[in-house]
Amino acid sequence: MTFFVDVDGYSIRADRWHYVAWGEQGDEGIELNDQRLNPKELSNLALSKDHLKVIESLR
User: Fold this and answer.
1) 9 φ, ψ to 5°?
2) Residue 47 lies in a domain
3) What angle do CA 49, 56, 12 make, to 5 degrees?
4) Residue 53's CB: how many other CB atoms inside 10 A?
5) Which residue range(s) make up the domain with 14?
6) Is residue 2 domain-resident?
7) How many separate domains does the chain show?
8) Cα-trace Rg, the chain
9) If we measure between CA atoms, which residue out of 13, 4, 57, 8 comes closest to residue 39?
10) By the 8 A CB rule, do 1 and 26 touch?
11) What is the DSSP-derived secondary structure letter of residue 53?
12) Does residue 17 form part of some domain?
C-alpha cells in the first residue's frame, strides 16, 4: 500500500534512527523510527517522551 501526501518535508537517517519532519519544522507531523528494532518502520516513536533527546539531536 502506498500513501501520497502533498506536504513538503525532510528526512534524516543516522546510524540507528530515521527522522522525518513534515511541513515547516515538523508542524505537519514528525516520525522517528529505530532502524535496528523496527526496520520496516511500523512504529512511530516520535510521541514517546523517552525519545525526546534523539529527536532534538536530529532536528
Assistant:
1) -170, -175
2) yes
3) 110
4) 8
5) 9-58
6) no
7) 1
8) 11
9) 13
10) no
11) H
12) yes
